[in-house]
Amino acid sequence: MIELLPGFEGQLALIDVSGARRQVNVGMLEEPPEPGNWVLIHVGFAVARVDAEEAARAMSGLELMGRPREEPVP
Is residue 15 part of a domain? Predict the structure, then answer.
């Protein structure tokens, strides 16, 4: 996570997804994530906080299913 966005009561965060910055709803998490935390995202919602190893396994699983890693967006 990069930062919680102001004005959304801790519900919306700016997240780095393979180099692309995305707005993600973090309201389903028990506690808001902090910068540097990893989260598992499904259809625009952070559904779990994970560590770097779990995040890498999730991305590898997506690649095995035929979804390539996204190219970073400048």
Answer: yes
The span from the CA of 9 to the CA of 64, in Å, is 37
Please answer whether residues 5 and 22 qualify as being in contact, where contact means their C-beta atoms are separated by less than 8 angstroms. Answer: no
Give the CATH number for residue 48.
2.30.30.140
Q: How many CB atoms lie within 10 A of CB 16?
A: 12
Q: Band of the pLDDT at 67, cuts 50, 70, 90?
A: low
Q: What pTM value is reported for the model? A: 0.75
Q: Taking all residues of the chain, what is their mean pLDDT, rounded to a whole number?
A: 87
Domain range for 58 is 3-64
